[in-house]
Design brief:
Length: about 700
Amino acid sequence: MSAEATNPEARPEALPELRRRGRTRLDLRRLGRAALLGPTPRDRLPDAIGHVAEAHRAHHPDADLSLLRRAYLLAETSHRGQMRKSGEPYITHPLAVTLILAELGAETTTLTASLLHDTVEDTDVTLDQVREEFGDEVCFIVDGVTKVEKIDYGAAAEPETFRKMLVATGNDVRVMSIKLADRLHNMRTLGVMRPEKQARIAKVTRDVLIPLAERLGVQALKTELEDLVFAILHPEEYERTRALIAAHAGERDPLPAIADSVRAVLRDAGIAAEVVVRPRHFVSVHRISLKRGELRGSDFGRLLVLVGENADCYAVLGELHTCFTPVISEFKDFIASPKFNLYQSLHTAFATPEGYVAEVIVRTRQMHRVAEAGVVALGNPYTGPPSAEQIAAADCDEERVDPTRPGWLSRLLDWQQSAPDPDTFWDVLRSELAQDREITVFRADGGTLGLPAGASCIDAAYAQYGEAAHGCIGARVNGRLTSLSSRLSDGDTVQLLLAHDASSGPTADWLDHARTPAARIAVSSWLEAHPDGARPADAAPRPPLSVIGLRSGGGNAVADLPDATVRLAGCCTPVPPDAVEGFVVRGGAVTVHRVHCATVAQMRAVGRTPVAVHWRATADCRVTLLAESFGRPHLLADLTEAIAREGVEVVSATVEPPVEQRVRHSYTLQLPDATGLPALMRAMRDVPGVYDVSRA
């Protein structure tokens, strides 16, 4: 890979230049020469950091720049004499990283730490010096982005460095903001390295840092990182895409004319809006070409409509769908349902009379700032207590108020503590970050769980109960019983059923359905600790286990036929005070059914004449109950004990072979009093593992 292919800022067709037309890129070599001139008088900023100050003041007009000046002087002094592999003075790197963050709107503390982010790692400056000069916040951030010593960790240095950064990010999200900007500048200047090292760094960027940028909502960094990785890892596809974009540049672009039409429609509707054409970046063009095949002029960009208020977004959407032909399949509402990375916008598309399809993004200016810069645009979330509005919002959606601990980050910090070794942590981290979408499910108690798309009931169990989920024996999803392997969808309500038996535990097949690292690590650890104690998988079907009693007959049912033998039907097991009918069967006996039994309808259909039946004054009765349960040790003993406590006699019992860990029990019972039937059924339902009891 040539330096030109991996350093886009060195050539006119550079990736960032296509996305940021009209913006001059800093001459890092000029900044390096300015840095070599040494410290400037303390009453003004050094010339080399003037660009950073200008970008910072654009977002924070009242910012105190004295801290930046002191940080620059320390960084320049400590890095003096160090050179980058590209031949530039090393100070150009922290300057470029800081400028990236300043353009995104980062506050002063972040920029101060950014200027110092390599001092502790690469110079004689210590953390104590940073703390004494700049305070605890800056010291914590600098420590968070400082790599661990390779001499101490060897081959595990890289995964342990990321583990350290992620833990620090859990306390201060600005740590990862600096790391992302640091990687972006390194990727821009990667062309001076050997091709194999370029590929190794690009793969880590693709597998870890780009997904982190997506989750933190920093789209401006994510898209440029994607393009730089694309150029290194897929040079042929990159060149084809570059050729497509170059060919399109020489053709008439229909999007400006379409944008004028949209402006006219919104102006006539009285909606104040800014409409701009946003060219797609390289990876986006590549993806759309795979999706649509041959590209047309309108496929190389999208329209961005910026308005003032949320209500204006929907007003714009209404006008677009009224005045143009909407492509309904392209409509997405991320305002009502924001993405888990804070992203909010309306997405739609419409067809023009000329046959072009224009994609449109509608958002407020604040949404646009957050969409581009993510958590960087939120400022410093650590200044002062939360307002009453923030506290109220936290009750509804904690992730929107505290960007430092979104659901995915909380899960990541939880499971990394259980990762037994750096290799496992590294593999599981990349697997976790590969999940590019989240779902929200509702717990039975009214709370919510954030899970990756494709998560199962097993993942929900470990997310809600931790290690107590080892005893999970089933779940209800949206009120219906389902297996633990069932996948959950966004908006599902899940009720997890736990066994109280300490011997319950997961089986090896749980690993086939667990998607979250927390669930997989917990299940694997339990199986390793209990090699002989896991519940065995269902083997070949076993014959039903039956306990047969000796009593039979009609109980206290009396038929209006003298001397007739009366039997209670086993299909519906009537008990007082059920409405019943009898039918004479072979042998002269009268079989008694509940009037709503299907057999009654069949008897009437073939012309059989019913026999009147009434109940004796005595209250004892016989009934058959069906118990549905999850299989576990001692379940039959617990059920029969619950029946015995109610003073009920077991006439017969049948246990069917388990199917997907579910067991069906059938009990014929002799009750001393029919009025005790509801209490008996409640007592059976209270047995752990039993989820339903019904009349036969």
